Amino acid sequence: MLQYQIIPVTSYQENCTIVWCDKTNDAAIIDPGGDAELIKKAVEKLGVKIGKILITHGHLDHVGATVELAKHYNVEIIGSGVDDEFLFNSLPEQCMQFGFPYIKPFLPNKWLNEGDTIEIGQLTLNVLHCPGHTPGHMVFICPAEKIAFVGDVLFKNSIGRTDFPRGSYTDLINSITQKLLPLGDDIAFIPGHGPMSTLGDERRHNPYLK
Ligand SMILES: [Zn+2]
Q1: Stated pTM of the model
Q2: Cβ-count burial of 191 within 10 angstroms (0-12 exposed, 13-18 middle, 19+ buried)?
Q3: Distance of CA 152 from the midpoint of ligand 1 (Å)
């Protein structure tokens, strides 16, 4: 079974999530936005084996601790989509803009594409390209466990901002209504910030989707 622990990090309380397979103890870190020591302590306490780092999109508050943790665990950085390359290259500018300590630009070891799959022990995550908040934003879904990791595409009662560079409101709404919601009302999701919800609750109650 899929297990997870959410660790809110940085002043933006970004939902860094440790995901693991409880049959094999293999784990991945999704969106390590910062506070590397906090994440390391959580991993140590769980006793899981980190095998990869997954990135939904190239915003600073989702990637800030990535390089440090990739070195620490000697693992690859996977995602987001290549259309976010300009964001990884502009990390120092993002730091200045948001008042974060300086972070060197870096690029993932692998870019993801829609339809890719990611193995974590006996778990399989499907990759969906959901542009709008950023052009290369990826969402990870575990259909067997009915859970999705949606980054900053969709939140409980809200949607991702589209006023950042290369954001698109039309693309975001299309990503949500044509890609996420059809996955089914019973899919629970962990957003990039704030509390969890289900696709059904958002389809029925999210004021931005009416
Ligand atoms: Zn973002």
Answers
A1: 0.97
A2: buried
A3: 5
